[in-house]
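Fold this sequence, please.
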Amino acid sequence: MIWLLRHHLARLSFVLLACSLLCAGLARAAPVINVLVAEPTGIYQETANSLTQALGREGWKVTVTSPGRNPASGGDLTVAIGTKALEAALAQPGRPVLSLLVPQLTYERLASGQQQVSALYLDQPLTRQLRLLGLALPGMKKAGVPLGPASQGLQAALQNAAKDSGIQVNSAPINKGSDMYAVLIDLAEDSQAFLLLPDPVATQRSTLQNFFLQTYRLKKPVLAYSAPLVQSGALLALYATPAQLGEEAAAWIRESWSKGVFRMGEARYPKRFTIGVNHTVARSLDIALPSEAALTRQLEAMP
């Protein structure tokens, strides 16, 4: 009888130990994600909402805060949404960081030499942008690209994209906003359209107003990188929406969680995208454009 009692106690201890280990494993299986937003408004908050909703459906714990407002400590991963958020996250090393809504060159400048940091860039691949110009404007052969100080590092990448897309790229430097007029006049002589890239100098508010005014006078359409820029005067824009970025980032985060750690891998461009069209500008420039849906289907079919 004593032997039997000891046998049952031993089995009970084993079951309790197994349950304890299982519960610990289950608790660890749901990582903690700290989302840091540059500003709790606009596209930053929209991207954060999309991300948290996608991860929340799987029971993951997600906290959202902004720089300077008691950011959460600990956690398995920090998702930094916007440049200010990325700067704050990098100032507190010790956990993996995923950057969102930051252009490629800005990310590379801030995260150079940092470990366990990756990004889903704000901007779209250059080849994809040039291919969209070719689809929207049949016969398109040459595009002009004004490059501010931050984007001048893209010259080699632009030439590679030109080879891949079959569209020649002519670029010119803009060191200050007042250079824009002369640069546009120079580029317009040998360009059928302009490509506007994210750059603090080239896209500052006063410079943008002059940029769209001059390109309109020159009757040269513009491809930009955000929905507000289409509303401001660009003919086209190629971008990922906050919802698309949040959902794509959530999928990447889930795929990267393995054995209790995140392995995000190399920074990359968004796979998903949206095409915006300013039909008023199209009519003013007498350009007949395919529909957004048709352009999207054609661009998605390209490698």
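Residues 21 and 27 are 10 Å apart (CA to CA). The longest helix spans residues 2-29.
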